[in-house]
Amino acid sequence: MLLVYTSLNTSMELPFSSAHCVLLHIIGVRNAAQRKLLDELGIPAEDVPVDEFTTLGRILYKAPSDGR
């Protein structure tokens, strides 16, 4: 099964300053994804341990500022 979770966090628009910062962000995103699986899909945390998650990468969202 493939589940995709995206974290929309505007503070992450700045470049990461260190490998430690990247690791902390990945851990935070995994924990948030686990919470969302319970909140939105009813899947309990024990069924989806975060240490089995795979980080695929980052997604750049872009939308025109004029609303089109």
Automatic annotation (TrEMBL):
PANTHER family reported in the protein's UniProt record? ISOPENTENYL-DIPHOSPHATE DELTA-ISOMERASE
GO BP terms: isopentenyl diphosphate biosynthetic process
Q: Which UniProt keywords apply?
A: Isomerase
Q: Which Gene3D superfamilies match?
A: Nucleoside Triphosphate Pyrophosphohydrolase
List the source organism: Ipomoea batatas
- Protein name per the record: Isopentenyl diphosphate isomerase
Q: What class does this enzyme belong to in the EC scheme? A: isomerase
What does it do?
Answer: Catalyzes the 1,3-allylic rearrangement of the homoallylic substrate isopentenyl (IPP) to its highly electrophilic allylic isomer, dimethylallyl diphosphate (DMAPP).
